[in-house]
Amino acid sequence: MTERLLTFPTLNQTQITALTSLGVDVVPASDWETATDIDIIFGWGQHGPAVLQNPQNHVRWIQTVSAGVDYLPLDWINAHNIQVTNASGAYSAAIAESTIGYLLYFLRDFNDAVKNQAGHFWQVPARSDLATLANQKIVIYGTGSIGQHIAELLNGFGNYPFGVNRSGHGVTGFQGTVSLEDDAALVKDADVIINAMPATPATVHYFNTDYFEKLNGVRIFVNVGRGKSVDEQALMHALLYQNVLNAALDVFETEPLPRESKLWDYPNVLITPHQTGFDVDNIRPIFGYLSDNLKSWDADGQLTVNRVDVSRGY
Amino acid sequence: MTERLLTFPTLNQTQITALTSLGVDVVPASDWETATDIDIIFGWGQHGPAVLQNPQNHVRWIQTVSAGVDYLPLDWINAHNIQVTNASGAYSAAIAESTIGYLLYFLRDFNDAVKNQAGHFWQVPARSDLATLANQKIVIYGTGSIGQHIAELLNGFGNYPFGVNRSGHGVTGFQGTVSLEDDAALVKDADVIINAMPATPATVHYFNTDYFEKLNGVRIFVNVGRGKSVDEQALMHALLYQNVLNAALDVFETEPLPRESKLWDYPNVLITPHQTGFDVDNIRPIFGYLSDNLKSWDADGQLTVNRVDVSRGY
């Protein structure tokens, strides 16, 4: 059976040949306006909604190249029984490495060093200004693929983090987990808080004024989840009033982060432009998910890898 | 038997009491000029040579608070049969964490991010600009306590580094080791080179023009060993001609690094002010070495922890 797949990422010839051998007719995204009979969308882009809603197409499956799928028209997709598989896991290793990098950037006092370097200042910090990862109390929100990868790397530093998830179920690599409702006691004396949750209605502005007021000088707050989970005004307030001492942020309420955002100028904030999952080899695992799903899809109409519960949003 | 110990670090009352209970009379460094009959020196400072050479003293042992001992008057110490024990191992965990931080700073493209942040630039890098530690070919010079700690942390990232040491003997955590004489083939296609060697006559300017010319675009060069091991002029040349693409340096030929050094302004160099081993808990393991050595010294005149071969210099 021949399926027509519209691909937003540019595929190389080896990848196109591989898809063709699986019985797939590959349509580049540049042909979106004239293409018809599209069954599958790979990736997403500006013209995704038009492709999806074109009555000449009959899209039944979207394989994203992202882990989060909150940018898709999920209500429409749900109403039309379109299946979605995501790229969960493809970025986890890179995101976890970036996260360890963020923590060491502040714990090993690189943040002061880069500022002093700009002024040619040899300013030796106090020994007590530096700390090791091994000795931090770390709480990770989200114990899925990303959270688990972060925990695994932390374990290599002799650190066993705590996890927070919906139900509080235990997860390998964590010394303990609690549910979102029961996190107050856990975070009160945390040294490090990491958000790695997906964006869902339940997590929008989870990190708000009420949340930050529970904290007593958390050394580092990291957001590698979704920008919408953090109320940026509340975070800036927490940074000023030292409920939070430093923050590393890769995602924002509005992206690109507007030039006029005050966050840029906070001396104790590290801003990276939603790059934390980037890796020279990113496409390799994602193409693997697509191929594996294509095989089962052709065999029995099932998608076996990374199925999204569209009604839940992840 | 009462020993008189002159201490350069300021000890707290608990530590002084602990030493007193071991039969030690503690003399603070501020009393260096009037003190006599000093047997043991703990740490080192400006007036160390005067204390050592005062004929009213009879120093037989120096317990340093540093891993390297190249700043001591080793010839004089050797000629007078004074024993030296160092703080090897006390800083290794912190140095290893800093080293991982340096690597992630460049691999995860924080170096561009901090510069872009200063200008409020949301500049998304290419996916191919970022890489993961897991996929780097890493060569560590020095396979002692520091090198082994770095290797151990790298193992947690799924990376098994290569080691270079004097004899080429194998070491746990490394996928292979070669001797200093046989490193050319190993470093030719290395992604990362880390210096963690002590300063000895054999390692002075080991990383010189001849060395850097062997490299084909090493992604990151790290120096957490000693400043004298690197010819800084040669390194700057290598950075300009892209034998080395980025460098993280914690130690320098002259410290503090002079304000007029051109190194400060290299956009692909991260400079930290000899802080890589700092930790809020630094004194704890070193005080442990001192106590353990005091016990054996009193029992049978032996020093069991971290004895330095004074003639070799480490």
TrEMBL record, chains A, B:
Keyword tRNA processing: no
Record has Hydrolase as a keyword: no
Domain D-isomer specific 2-hydroxyacid dehydrogenase NAD-binding: 101-275
Any Pfam family the entry gives: 2-Hacid_dh_C
Keywords: NAD, Oxidoreductase
Protein name: NAD(P)-dependent oxidoreductase
Organism: Levilactobacillus lanxiensis
